[in-house]
Amino acid sequence: MDKSMVKSETVVAPPPPVDLTAKVIGWCTYNRCYQGSTSWEKHVQHQRKRHCTAAERHALCRFCLELHHAGLQEHLQEHALSDVACSLCSGRFLDDGDVARHKADFHQVTTGDEVPPALGRCTKCPATFSSWEDNVQHQVIRHHKKDADRVCSHCLVPLPSVEFAETHVLRHSEGKDFPCHLCPARLTSEETRTKHLQRFHAQEWAFR
C-alpha cells in the first residue's frame, strides 16, 4: 500500500493551563460547562460561540441572555424603560427575582454579595470551579460520559467495574486515603495528592 494514502491520526494537544490568578466573576453552568469569565461581556461572547445555534445568536439578549426568537426588539425596549442592574457585573434584568437567580447561577453567590474565588481548574478544557462538587459534575458529564457510574467522586479515578468501585469507595470511607487541605478531594496516595495540588489547584510549589 502506498504510504502516502494512509491517513495519519490527528493528535489533539491538551489546552494550556487556565490562570487561576485571573479574577473570574462567574461561570457558565450550561450542561456543566463551567468555563469562567472575567466579565459579563466575555460570558455573553462565550454563550454565543459555544452554546448557541446561528438562529439563537440573533435572538439572544445581550443584557440578560434570554432568548426571544420573536419579539427581541420589544424585549430590548423593556430593558430601556426599566430594568435592574446586577451589582457584580454589567448584566441587566427585568426584575429582582431574575437578578437573584442570575447571582446564584452565574456568580455562584450563596450568601452576601461576593463572588467565590476560583478553587481549581480542569486539565482537559478551559473550565474553572468554585467548588470540588462542580468539578465532579463537570468531569462526569463532560469528560466521562461512558464510564460515569464508575468515576469516584472523592478522587475522580475512573474504575474498571462497578464492583471494584464499591471496594474503592470503602477504602475512602475507612480513612485509607490522603485528603487535600484546599478542597474535599481525597486522593489514593501522597503522589496523587501532589499531582492534584499542582494540576487542579495550580499549586506549582507542590513539585518543588
TrEMBL record:
SMART domains: ZnF_C2H2 (SM00355). Residues 86-107, 122-144, 180-201 form the C2H2-type domain. It comes from the Eukaryota. PROSITE patterns: ZINC_FINGER_C2H2_1 (PS00028). Transmembrane segments: none annotated. This is Zinc finger protein PLAGL2-like isoform X2. It comes from Thrips palmi (Melon thrips).
